[in-house]
């Protein structure tokens, strides 16, 4: 995911509450912010779950704490060889 962010190889899943649920998509946070959040994620703050719409796609959940705020980063990847990251949520 970090490589996808550095390379600009990512997109955002369309959703109704984009302004509340995906701060990366609306520009309130940038790629460096998301990388910092992912790097701050401890093992017990990471999990995977099947996507709600496609149970064969695994979604990665990062719930790091930065300052006194718990963040929520939800992302999955499109099939190889693209390895494009698709961000569902980036928010507190």
Could you explain how this protein is built, in words?
This protein has 92 residues and is an alpha+beta fold. Helix content is 25%, strand content 33%. It has helices spanning 2-7, 18-21, 23-26, 31-39; strands at residues 10-12, 46-50, 58-62, 65-66, 69-70, 72-77, 85-91. Strands 1-7-6-3-2 form a five-stranded mixed sheet. Strands 4-5 form a two-stranded antiparallel ribbon. The radius of gyration is 12 Å and the shape is globular. The mean pLDDT is 92.
Summarize the structure.
With 92 residues, the chain is α+β, with helices and mostly antiparallel strands. It is built from 4 helices and 7 strands. The mean pLDDT is 92.
Main features:
92 residues, alpha+beta
Summarize the SSE layout with pairings.
Layout: H1 2-7, E1 10-12, H2 18-21, H3 23-26, H4 31-39, E2 46-50, E3 58-62, E4 65-66, E5 69-70, E6 72-77, E7 85-91
Parallel strand pairs: 1-7
Antiparallel strand pairs: 2-3, 3-6, 4-5, 6-7
Content of β-strand: 25-35%
Distance between the termini: 19 Å
Shape: globular
Helix content: 25-40%
- Could you describe the largest sheet, including whether it forms a barrel? 5 strands, mixed
Helix/strand/pairing category: alpha+beta
Total of helices: 4
How many extended strands? 7
Output the radius of gyration. 12 Å
Order of secondary-structure elements: HEHHHEEEEEE
**On the 0-100 scale, what is the average pLDDT?**
92
Q: For the largest beta sheet, what order do the strands appear in spatially?
A: 1-7-6-3-2
Unreliable parts: none
**Oligomeric state of the chains in view:** single chain
């Amino acid at each position: 995911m970090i490589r996808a962010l550095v390379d600009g190889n990512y997109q955002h899943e369309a959703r109704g509450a984009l302004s509340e649920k995906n701060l990366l998509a609306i520009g309130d946070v940038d790629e460096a912010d998301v990388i910092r959040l992912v790097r701050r994620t401890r093992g017990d703050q990471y999990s995977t779950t099947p996507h709600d719409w496609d149970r064969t796609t695994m979604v990665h959940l990062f719930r790091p704490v930065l300052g006194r705020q718990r963040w929520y980063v939800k992302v999955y990847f499109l099939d190889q060889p693209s390895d494009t990251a698709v961000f569902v949520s980036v928010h507190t």
